[in-house]
C-alpha cells in the first residue's frame, strides 16, 4: 500500500513556513507498512492543485491533502476535491454548529464567511477537528478498477494531529491489518565520521544475501551519525541476527538507540526541580538543543559566557540542581552537575583535533554533557 502527501499553500512554496506536516504523516505511516511515494507541495493555484491531484493518482492508494480548508477566498481545496471525485458539495449542519460553538466559547464573533468551512463532497465522511474550526473529510475516488482513499486535512500541525488521533489512526489500523509491517532500528553514534561508521556497519552486514529485504540508511545530524536498519516484520528472526552484529560493531560509539532524544531524557529527569545551566564552553549549542524543552521545567536559569568571564568549580560548592560546562583547554572541558545532592565532576575530551573542527567540538561538548548527566542520574 502506497501513500502520497499533497500540501497546499502558497506560504509553503514561497518558503514562508516549512512543511513539517508531510514529515510527520510519513513517520506515522511507516510502522504500518505504508510506503510514502513522495511529498508534493503546491501553491494556492486551482490549475496547479488539479494537475497535482491528477499526477498523484498514478502513484498512490491513499492520498493525504493538507491545507486550504479555511474560510478565506484562497481556501478552495474542498471545491477542487469535489470536482476531482465528481461529487457535489453539501452543507453539513453539524460542522456549522462546531464552528459556532468553538468560536463563541472563545469570545469570537461568528461570521457568515465561516460557513464555507462546512461544505463537504456528498457521501464523504466528516472528520471532526477538536483543535480548530476546520473539520477534515474522507472520501474516495474511483477510477476504473482502482480506488483511491483520500484524507483532506487542515494545515495547522496541531489540528492534523488531533484529527489523526480521533479518526485517521483507527481507519489506517483497520485497513492495514494484513500488511507486513516494517520495523526500523536505529543507533545514534558519536565520535566517528560517517564513512568510518559505514565501514563498521558494512563489515557487520557481510553475509547478507542480495535478496534479503534489509535496508541500511545513514543520516548525519551533528554531532551524531545515525544508522538505521529497516526490515519487514515477517523477516524478524533472520534480520535480528544482523541487528545484533551491528549492535556489537557500534557498541563503543553508540549514545542513543531507536530514535531516543537526549534532550527528552534529560528534561524528564529534572522537570520537577528548579534547575540552572551554566555554559562557558559550547557557544550556545547547549542552549539551542535544550531550549525547545525548557518550557517543561518548573523554573530554570541560564547563564552563558560573556566578556571573557569565567568560573571555576569553587563557585558551585553550595549550589544544587545545575549543569555547568567549564573550559579546560582547546580540546577538553570540565562538566559539573548536581541533581538532588548527587554530584559529579568529569573531564570530556573531544576526538576532533583539527583546527577546522572547532564548532564540531563545541557541539560534541554540549551533547556529551547531556549524555553524562543522563547516565549518572
What would a concise description of this structure say?
With 377 residues, this protein is an alpha/beta fold. Helices cover 32% and strands 28% of the residues. α3 (46-56) crosses α4 (77-84) and α9 (262-270) crosses α11 (358-376).
What does this entry look like structurally?
By secondary structure, this protein is α/β, with parallel strands linked by helices. It folds into 3 domains: 2-175, MoaB/Mog-like domain (Molybdenum Cofactor Biosythetic Enzyme, Chain A), CATH 3.40.980; 182-257, Alpha-Beta Plaits (2-Layer Sandwich), CATH 3.30.70; 262-376, no CATH class. It is 32% helix and 28% strand. The chain has 11 helices and 17 strands. The strands form 4 sheets. Strands 2-1-3-8-7-6 form a 6-stranded mixed beta sheet, sandwiched between helices. Helix 3 (46-56) crosses helix 4 (77-84). The chain is globular and about 75 Å long. The two termini are 44 Å apart. The mean pLDDT is 90.
SSE layout:
Blueprint: E1 2-8, H1 10-13, H2 21-29, E2 35-42, H3 46-56, E3 62-66, H4 77-84, E4 89-91, H5 93-104, E5 119-121, E6 125-127, E7 136-143, E8 146-153, H6 157-175, E9 182-189, H7 194-204, E10 215-221, E11 224-232, H8 236-249, E12 254-257, H9 262-270, E13 274-279, H10 285-290, E14 299-304, E15 322-327, E16 332-339, E17 342-349, H11 358-376
Parallel strand pairs: 1-2, 1-3, 3-8, 13-14, 13-15
Antiparallel strand pairs: 4-5, 6-7, 7-8, 9-11, 9-12, 10-11, 15-16, 16-17
CATH superfamily descriptor of the largest domain: MoaB/Mog-like domain
Number of E-type strands:
17
Runs in which pLDDT lies below 50 for 5 or more consecutive residues are none
Secondary-structure element pattern, one letter each: EHHEHEHEHEEEEHEHEEHEHEHEEEEH
Amino acid at each position: 500500500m502506497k501513500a502520497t502527501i499533497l500540501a497546499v499553500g502558497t506560504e509553503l512554496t514561497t518558503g514562508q513556513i516549512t512543511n513539517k506536516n508531510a514529515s510527520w504523516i510519513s513517520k506515522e505511516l511507516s510502522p504500518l507498512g505504508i510506503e510514502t511515494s513522495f511529498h508534493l507541495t503546491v501553491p494556492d493555484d486551482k490549475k496547479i492543485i488539479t494537475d497535482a491531484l491528477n499526477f498523484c493518482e498514478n502513484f498512490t492508494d491513499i492520498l493525504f491533502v493538507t491545507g486550504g480548508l479555511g474560510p478565506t477566498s484562497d481556501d478552495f481545496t474542498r471545491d477542487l476535491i469535489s470536482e476531482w471525485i465528481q461529487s457535489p458539495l453539501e452543507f453539513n449542519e453539524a460542522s456549522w454548529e462546531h464552528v459556532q460553538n468553538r468560536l463563541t466559547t472563545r469570545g469570537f464573533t461568528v461570521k457568515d464567511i465561516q460557513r464555507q468551512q462546512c461544505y463537504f463532497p456528498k457521501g464523504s465522511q466528516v472528520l471532526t477537528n477538536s483543535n480548530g474550526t476546520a473539520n477534515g473529510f474522507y472520501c474516495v475516488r474511483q477510477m476504473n478498477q482502482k480506488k483511491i482513499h483520500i484524507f483532506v486535512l487542515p494545515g495547522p500541525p496541531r489540528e492534523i494531529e488531533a484529527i489523526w488521533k480521533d479518526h485517521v489512526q483507527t481507519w489506517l489500523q483497520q485497513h492495514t491489518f494484513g500488511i507486513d509491517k516494517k520495523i526500523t532500528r536505529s543507533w545514534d553514534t558519536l565520535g566517528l565520521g560517517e564513512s568510518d561508521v559505514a565501514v563498521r556497519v558494512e563489515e557487520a552486514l557481510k553475509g547478507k544475501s542480495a535478496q534479503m529485504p534489509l535496508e541500511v540508511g545513514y543520516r548525519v545530524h551533528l554531532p551524531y551519525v545515525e544508522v538505521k536498519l529497516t526490515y519487514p516484520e515477517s523477516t524478524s528472526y533472520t534480520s535480528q541476527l544482523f541487528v545484533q552484529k551491528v549492535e556489537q560493531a557500534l557498541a563503543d560509539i553508540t549514545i542513543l538507540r531507536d530514535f531516543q532524544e537526549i534532550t527528552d531524557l534529560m528534561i524528564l529527569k529534572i522537570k520537577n526541580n528548579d534547575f540552572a545551566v551554566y555554559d562557558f564552553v559550547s557557544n550556545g549549542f547547549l542552549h539551542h538543543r535544550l531550549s525547545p524543552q525548557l518550557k517543561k521545567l518548573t523554573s530554570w536559569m541560564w547563564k552563558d559566557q560573556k566578556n571573557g568571564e569565567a568560573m571555576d568549580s569553587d563557585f558551585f560548592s553550595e549550589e544544587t540542581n545545575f549543569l555547568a560546562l567549564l573550559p579546560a583547554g582547546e580540546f577538553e572541558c570540565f562538566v559539573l552537575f548536581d541533581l538532588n545532592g548527587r554530584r559529579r565532576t568529569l573531564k570530556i575530551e573531544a576526538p576532533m583535533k583539527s583546527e577546522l573542527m572547532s564548532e564540531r567540538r563545541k557541539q560534541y561538548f554540549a551533547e556529551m554533557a547531556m549524555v553524562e548527566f543522563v547516565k549518572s542520574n
